[in-house]
Every structure is written in structure tokens, then in C-alpha cells.
Amino acid sequence: MKAAVYRRYGPPEVVQVQDVEKPAPKDNEVLVRIRATTVCAADWRLRTANPFLVRLMFGLLRPKINVLGMEFAGTIESVGKNVTSFHAGDDVFGSTGVKFGAHAEYVCVPQNALAMKPATMTHEEAAAVLFGAISALHFLRKARIQAGQKVLIYGASGSVGTFAVQLAKHFGAHVTGVCSTANLELVKSLGADAVVDYTREDFSSAGRIYDMVVDTVGMSGF
Questions:
Q1: First and final C-alpha spacing in the chain
Q2: Cα atoms found within 13 Å of the Cα of residue 31, Cβ hemisphere only
Q3: How far are the Cα atoms of 13, 17, 40 from residue 20, in angstroms, in the given order?
Q4: From CA 90, how far away is CA 83, in angstroms rounded?
Q5: 125: exposed, middle or buried (C-beta count within 10 Å: 0-12, 13-18, 19+)?
Q6: Terminus of the chain with fewer CB atoms < 10 Å: N or C?
């Protein structure tokens, strides 16, 4: 099969499409023919070894993982003997987590790393859900978000931020999104009750009080 392979840290040019061995599913795994995947922040951090902690976790001199990609959508080609939730031919989407490997024609993942792709979504749309949406959901739950709270989301137009806006509204919060001028209408369309253009206003000195601040880009300071 074909895969996007990198064997040293560096710029995008270190990634090359190569022939690699097609994986075979274990008893609790499914083999997915990938129809769509993404390049997310985690892929960039591994490829560039930025921050340095990446080298300590994934290889000091060269990467231990050679195929990037954390999220995908595709069609199940075969299943292991212990798999009961899915069958060959099912359209699914899911995440490989820190194993990566989704920048390839095929990937093997445990059945609990998958969900059925909604019929109303394309493979491209479904593939883009996992990284941003699960990150946002995890931290909103960790912060114990409640209906009626005033929540500010900094970086509301990014991968995590766009889902944080929608999920916070789903939980019943009053949401203020912070983004650039070009993305104000996008953030409004996601359901934000108010938007702040950070190029024109510093939300932290505007005198407004929030029950929760979700900083998805690490720019607001403590």
C-alpha cells in the first residue's frame, strides 16, 4: 500500500509517498480503507519535533513513528474474529490516537476507536471531527460546564475552538468567541452569542466576567 512516510524530523519535504506493508487486523481490530484524513497540529508537532518534548516521547534522534495522521474516515475492509460492532463494508470514522498511521491507504484500529459515519456527512467532513471535537469535549467536561454559565472561547475559529463553541452551546452556556476579523461571521454562524475581534480589543481588559475561559491556542496568559 501507499503511505506518507517520514524518517527524520524537518520541513514538509521530509515526507515522501512510499510503498509499505499493508497491515493485517488482530482479533479485536478492523482494517479500514481510508477515504479521507487530515493534517492536524499533532502531525506538525511530530514532524518538526516541536516542542523538544516530542523527541523525548517519540524518538530523540529520529522518529519512532514513520507514518503520521491521527484521524480518518473510510470503509471497513475486514474485521478480526472478536469484532462484533462492525462489519466489512461499513463506513466509519475514528482516531488512531498517539499511534498515528492514518496517512496511508489502510490502517488497523481497535473497534472501540471507531464510530459509524453519519449518512449526512461526507468522508472528508467526518475525518475532521475527532481531533478538535474530542479535545474540546474533554476539557469542557473536565471544567464541569453547566447550563447558564458565561463561557469565553479564545481561538474560536480553529480546530478545537469551532467545536468548543458548538459544544458549549449544546450544554446551554452563553458563549463569547474570540477570533480575528476575518472569522467573526464564521464564529457567529457556529452559534456564538457574542464575538470579540482580538485585533481590536483585549477581552481580558474589557471588564466582562466569565465563569470559564477556554484558551485553545495558549495566547491569553494566566
A1: 47
A2: 15
A3: 19, 9, 22
A4: 13
A5: middle
A6: C
Q: What is the pLDDT of residues 137-187, one digit of tens each?
A: 999 999 999 999 999 999 999 999 999 999 999 999 999 999 999 999 999
Nearest Cα to Cα of residue 187 among 158, 217, 150, 145: 158
Between the CA of residue 215 and those of 157, 179, 182, 201, what are the distances in Å? 12, 11, 19, 16
Residue-range domain boundaries for the chain:
2-127, 131-215
pTM given for the model: 0.84
The position carrying cell 494566566 is 222
Q: Cell 485553545 appears where?
A: 216
Q: Residues 89, 76: contact at Cβ < 8 Å?
A: yes
104: which DSSP letter? Answer: B
Longest dimension (CA), the chain: 60
Grid cell listed for 99: 499511534
- HSE-up of residue 219 (Cα within 13 Å, Cβ side): 12
Length of the chain: 222
pLDDT tops 90 at residue 206: no
Instruction: Write down the CATH superfamily of domain 131-215.
Output: NAD(P)-binding Rossmann-like Domain (3.40.50.720)
Nearest to 129 by CA among 159, 105, 170: 159
Instruction: Domain 2-127: give its CATH code.
Output: 3.90.180.10
